[in-house]
Design a protein that fits this description.
about 190 residues; mainly alpha; Four Helix Bundle (Hemerythrin (Met), subunit A); about 80% helix; globular; binds fe (ii) ion
Amino acid sequence: MEALHIIGEEHQSLAAILHAIRFMLKEISAGRLEADIKLFQAMVHYLDAYAEKRHHPKEDLLFRRLPERTGEGAEALAKLGQQHAAAPQRMAALEGALASYVADHGRFKEFAQAFDIYAEFYREHMMLEEDEVLPLLRTHLTADDWVELDAAFRAEMQTKSGKDGAAEDFSALFSRLVECAPAPIGFGPRPFGN
Ligand SMILES: [Fe+2]
Ligand SMILES: [Fe+2]
């Protein structure tokens, strides 16, 4: 069940980034923190390129197996499938709000609101996965399923590790994001730079 462990770890990383953005927005609103546009852009990029484009497809591999083993969880799976498929629209709304804010700093509130909608959606999405679907996978998938799925996850993580320059190195990016995010969420504030 290495695959489930990977999904759990990715949820923790994604929750940390969502929490960091929410915290920064609150601190900026209160006048206690200066906005770091490049850090926001890098975090939103992480959400798009990792959360939406690398994390969900791995989950789809797992979720597809469930109906072959049980009829349970069908409603949750249908909902999650639709939510995964709607990633482009979701990201377009968030990226559009960020771009408007970058062009006009007076539009901070709109970006903060767009981010709140995104974060709330993502929190509920992860809860549905963790509370309903992951336990069903644990119960109903067979040992052979796990051998196959763990191998598929391992291959995905290895071929796209970013260590050989063939893909973006998201673990390095995550570390930089945490380094630059303000304490106590991260180790900064430190300018993200380029
Ligand atoms: Fe998901
Ligand atoms: Fe997920």
